[in-house]
Design a protein that fits this description.
CATH topology of the largest domain: Rossmann fold
Strand order of the largest sheet: 15-14-13-12-8-11-10-9-16
Bound molecules: nicotinamide-adenine-dinucleotide
Shape: globular
Oligomer: single chain
Number of domains: 2
CATH architecture of the largest domain: 3-Layer(aba) Sandwich
Number of helices: 15
Length: 440
């Protein structure tokens, strides 16, 4: 089956790349809304949270993208709150879906998936959204996030979506539009930037924003590590299947590792500065992963980000087998500095004791579900779109060798995602070369 997701060229022209709902469900949603309104007005004797907790209503969850993180997120979601059931599942590939089902079966009452509510293929996402769910977990490779988010919000369904949320500026603009629509429709969007729900980070950021390290004058953010998995090509794979089974290594699918992984640390940088930077000036390349199986991504990047007030942050990320790892952030102020994962030094030192802290992968779902049930839905869509564009802007600079401004990146015509989805031939764009790859 061929599905058209976007208008535009079949592949990038630039060289830098990388419901209808069942009637019963409508009334369930109305119940959530009416109960929440009632609670807000203190006009009902029993709050929706109590009703859910008492098992009088259950929040049905659909999983779209049943790989490692999707399976983990579904489990975290069930653990996070009472009255949660995994209801429907969708994946491009039957084997991935079955593996995830085998795992999630252990969730007891939290698992209510039937064969009829399992879907495969490029349109599985729509079938999950239409299956009568209240919330979907979007955990496919990031290239699909804009279209899946758009469908979920238009379908009236709350969203937990993994980071990053797009691989090009066109996708970012789509996510921002969907986030605005979600606000209008009072639907929740929580992103998988779990540091935003982690007590140690929340405590440190509160202190940084309170001025405990003075004015922020700079910082460093890192995601340096060894190698990752590779899925060997099988003779019957089409290009599309091969690239999607190995999505990490194809810039159109993952955004490259600066987007796919380092977005976590760049999000912390933006958090400490109260918003995204205005400029990126970066470099990168590939030296240790040059074989064809590593697609067309770089294996290292170093970017300088500049903010509107002139403050600069250094960012670096690397995936190179055998190299030293460092995954961290450091925020430097006029009166001290902070590793916002738990430590402040200087005029007002602080050490976070995290022994009692909840797992942030669970806490993010607790916060999401409480917000849905209270009728005050969280909406992290714009924020994660901005952090993802921060990473894309760094990649654009490193791929082309040019300084890239925020305004340029936000309005860029760069669209590296295929416009049609079918299992067939798919050309791999050449590896970018700074100074030669054009900035689009
Ligand atoms: N927050 C975190 O700490 C964290 C950790 C790991 C991964 N992630 C993110 O989670 C997402 C998934 O990563 P993963 O490690 O689970 O990868 P994965 O390869 O294990 O899983 C991705 C799944 O999506 C499926 N898929 C691909 N295209 C699809 C489509 N069009 N429709 C439906 N299913 C499709 C694949 O078959 C696969 O099962 C990525 O965005 C990644 O960056 C976040």
């Amino acid at each position: 089956m061929m599905i058209t997701y976007r208008k535009g060229p079949t592949m990038s022209t630039e060289k830098d790349g990388h419901t209808p709902r069942p009637t019963g469900e409508t009334s369930r949603r109305e119940f959530i809304k009416v109960s929440a309104l009632g609670a807000a007005a203190a006009a009902v004797a029993v709050s929706p949270v109590q009703l859910f907790a008492a098992g009088q209503d259950t929040l049905k969850v659909g999983l779209i993208g049943c790989g490692g993180r999707g399976t983990g997120a579904a489990s975290n979601c069930v653990e996070s709150s009472d009255g949660i059931q995994i209801w429907a599942m969708g994946d491009l590939f039957g084997d991935r879906l079955q593996g995830s089902r085998n795992n999630l079966k252990n969730l007891g009452d939290g698992y209510a998936v039937t064969d009829e509510r399992c879907f495969t293929g490029f349109d599985a996402y729509q079938q999950v959204i239409d299956s009568g769910v209240d919330l979907v977990i979007l955990a496919t490779p990031p290239a699909f996030r804009p279209i899946h988010l758009d469908a979920a919000i238009k379908g009236g369904v709350n969203v937990f979506m993994e980071k990053p949320v797009a691989t090009d500026p066109a996708g970012i603009r789509s996510v921002i539009e969907s986030s605005k629509l979600a606000k209008e429709k009072k639907l929740a969007i929580v992103a998988g930037t779990q540091r935003r729900h982690q007590t140690s980070y929340l405590e440190c950021m509160k202190r940084i924003q309170n001025g405990d390290i003075g004015d922020v004058v700079g910082g460093q953010v890192y995601w340096n590590q060894g190698g990752l998995w590779v899925h060997k090509r099988k003779p019957d794979y089409t290009d599309m299947e091969y690239q999607l089974r190995n999505w990490l290594y194809f810039a159109w699918a993952s955004g490259d590792h600066i987007v796919e992984q380092h977005v976590h640390n760049l999000d912390v940088m933006n958090w400490s500065m109260g918003g995204p930077p205005v400029k990126a000036y970066g470099m990168g390349g590939r030296q240790s992963r040059t074989a064809e199986e590593y697609g067309n991504i770089f294996d290292h990047f170093a970017i300088e980000y500049e903010f509107a007030n002139g403050v600069r942050f250094q960012s670096m990320c690397r995936q190179a087998p055998g190299s030293d790892s460092r995954v961290a952030e450091k925020i430097v102020g006029t009166k001290g500095w902070s590793n916002p994962g738990g430590r402040l030094e200087g005029a007002t030192p602080y050490r976070h004791n995290g022994r009692q802290d909840r797992n942030p992968y669970v806490q993010e779902h607790t916060d999401l579900i409480a917000s849905i049930r209270s009728g005050e839905p969280l909406n992290e869509g714009q924020r994660i779109a901005e952090s993802t564009l921060t990473a894309i802007m760094g990649r654009m600079s490193a791929y082309t060798g040019k300084v890239v401004t925020w305004d340029f990146a936000m309005s860029s015509e760069l669209n590296i995602v295929p416009s049609t989805w079918e299992f067939g031939a798919l050309q791999t764009d050449p590896v970018a070369i700074p100074g030669q790859t054009p900035l689009v």
